[in-house]
Amino acid sequence: MKYTVIFAQTASEQLEAIQRYIASTASPSIAEQYVDAIVDHCLDLDTFPHRGVQRNDLRPGVRLISYRKRVDIAFVVSDDTLQVTIISVFYGGQDLEAAFAFAPEGDPLN
User: Fold this and answer.
1) pLDDT in tens, 15-53
2) 72 lies in a domain?
3) Burial of 97 by CB count in 10 Å (0-12 exposed, 13-18 middle, 19+ buried)?
4) Which residue in 8, 30, 70, 89 is a FRET match for 64, CA 20 to 30 A apart?
5) Residue 69 half-sphere exposure, CB side, CA atoms within 13 Å?
C-alpha cells in the first residue's frame, strides 16, 4: 500500500531557498538537479514511510532521514490517512533542534 507524500509550505520554502543558494554558489542547473534529487528522495517515502530516526524529542511523531549527509528531512507519517508530510528540509548543518524549539505556534514544526 502506497502513502501520499506532501510538502508543507515551510518545507517548500526551504527547498526554494536551498535552490537559490546553490544557484548562487554553483549554477542554476546544478541547483535544480540537487533539489529535484532531494524531492525524489522524499517521494520515495511513499513505499516505506517509517524509515529514518524517530525524534519525539523534537515533536511527537517526527522522523528524520538524511540525503547525501548534507540535508536532514523532517517528516510525519499518518497511518490513518496514508500520508507522509514533509515538514522541514534542513541544509548544510542547520540547527534543527533550534528550529523546532523556536517555531511559532501553528507552524508545521510544532
Assistant:
1) 999 999 999 999 999 999 999 999 999 999 999 999 999
2) yes
3) exposed
4) 30
5) 0
State which residues form the domain around 46.
Answer: 4-94
User: Mean pLDDT lowest for which of 19-28, 67-76, 78-87, 88-97?
Assistant: 88-97
Average pLDDT, the chain: 91
Tally: H helices and E strands in the chain:
3, 5
Which amino acid would we find at residue 13? E
Element (H, E) at 90: strand 83-91
Is 61 a domain residue? Answer: yes
The predicted model scores a pTM of 0.89
Domain presence at residue 100: no
Q: What are the φ and ψ backbone dihedral angles of 66, each rounded to 5 degrees?
A: -115, 155
Cα separations in angstroms, 50 against 32, 57, 61, 65, 73: 27, 17, 10, 10, 13
Does 22 fall in a domain?
A: yes
Give the span between the Cα atoms of 100 and 83, in whole angstroms: 21
**pLDDT at 89 > cutoff 70:** yes
